[in-house]
Amino acid sequence: MTTSLNKYLKAFEQEANLSALTGIGRGIEREALRVLPEGKLSERPHFYQLGSALTHPSITTDYAETLLEFITPVTFSPEQAIAQLQDIQKYTLSQIDGELLWPMSMPCFVEDQGKIALANYGQSNIGKMKTVYRQGLKNRYGSMMQVIAGIHFNFSFPDSFWQTLQELDDNQLPRDQYISEKYFAVLRNYKRYCWLIPYLFGSSPSLCPSFLQGHDHQLPFKTAPSGSIYLEYATSLRMSDLGYTNSEQSSLRICYNNLDDYVAGVQEAISLPSEKFAKIGVKVDGKYQQLNSNVLQIENELYAPIRPKRVAKSGEKPSQALQERGVEYIEVRALDVNPFVDTGISIEQVYFLDVFLTFCALEDDQQLGCDEQRIYESNMDEVVIRGRDPKLTLVDGSDKKSVTQWGNEIFAKLAQVAKLLDSAYQTTKYSQAITVENAKINDPSLTPSAQILKVLIEDGQSLSAIALAQASEYREQLLARDYQFYDQTYFTETVAASHQQQKDIEADDNQSFDEFLTEYFSEQKSE
Length: 527
Prior knowledge:
Blueprint: H1 3-13, H2 15-18, E1 25-35, E2 59-61, E3 67-71, H3 78-95, E4 100-101, H4 125-141, E5 151-156, H5 159-169, H6 175-193, H7 196-201, E6 206-207, E7 222-223, E8 229-230, H8 259-271, H9 275-278, E9 283-284, E10 287-288, E11 306-309, H10 318-325, E12 329-335, H11 347-362, H12 370-386, E13 393-396, E14 399-402, H13 403-425, H14 429-442, H15 448-457, H16 463-480, H17 488-508, H18 513-526
């Protein structure tokens, strides 16, 4: 047990400090493709009865018009977060005319990627900007990336936790500054250990061959009896070079040692020209092809498995919000959609993430140099491609370790944190979650990636058949159950309000789109 972790565990075990661990905040963003019952991508626009994709607080679209995104508010109960997600999906399924929600990260069969429509957010300047940004992504990385789905898990510690931790550290910094520094410590530890996430939860070891349209790759794919392609030991092809990656970003030196350096790195990337992207052009024949030709069009284009976040005010950019008011929460982005549950993320995963992120906050922390950061990123790259390979070794400082060795070392610490959270919340669910996940370290066949490949290879089923069976079952289950947190009236009223809000935004525009973009990026340069 490390010195700081042992010290913190003993301190939080005391009755006076134990309650400081309660009040963890969680929010979930789940992406899901709309597909037809036969398994093809829907070509219909966003359904009006789902509300405005620009302004609805719970139902929007991500990159593509058919890639829905469901958003839960901050909640302080894992059960409530899952219930809210189920309610949102129940309403959505009742309004999309028999279409299904694809239950996997990698997309269904796509006959022609040219038919993948970009998300449309209306005629306001901000709506047009969101669509042009996606046009830029299409031109930079191809359309198929626009239909990959994932889970984002937003997480925050309560003020009482930070207050207790600061007292234990005998730290005299202003509270907001201390909290930001400690969140960056969480980020650094997460980057050290985040290979665990795709190993434990990666659910995309296989692809429909249609996904490789326009993709150059050197990966040694095998073909399943049904025609699906796969990598024997892969865990999360979504997180590989085939998925959310940007080779232009590999040269960026965005480090996680403190807030100021991080923000400076992100802002530099936004203004850093790219020769490759310049060849696309910005406004070609009167039509925008991207927002600009820099390495990042805007901050959202930075692909990272975790991000520091702060709720931004209207018109405020993410890095500006961070710089002004510090880190408020963190966003975990390395999660595949879990095809074995209707919400795409199980409640057991939520309990595990609570433990894992609390461990990252309490574990010993050191600064991460850019070279060291790349080593841990390389560990992640290895695990997504061959995480279940018994010959795989990962780099931990000056040591090379197997997944089993390093995993069991980490889980020994996680078990202690889980025991602490169980005491704080008067439950046994945290320890149960750790026991279940630890078993995967010692038996790779228990991982979801291995389970998917077993059905594909040994049982001879097709990826589409598996996904459609799950999607149909989840649709029936969700439609049959009662609302748990929201109700029909809430959704009806929220849909109407969102359409009105979009109209109000469009009516308030008093600039041309060209003027709007010029002002937006000139403000960015002046920050």
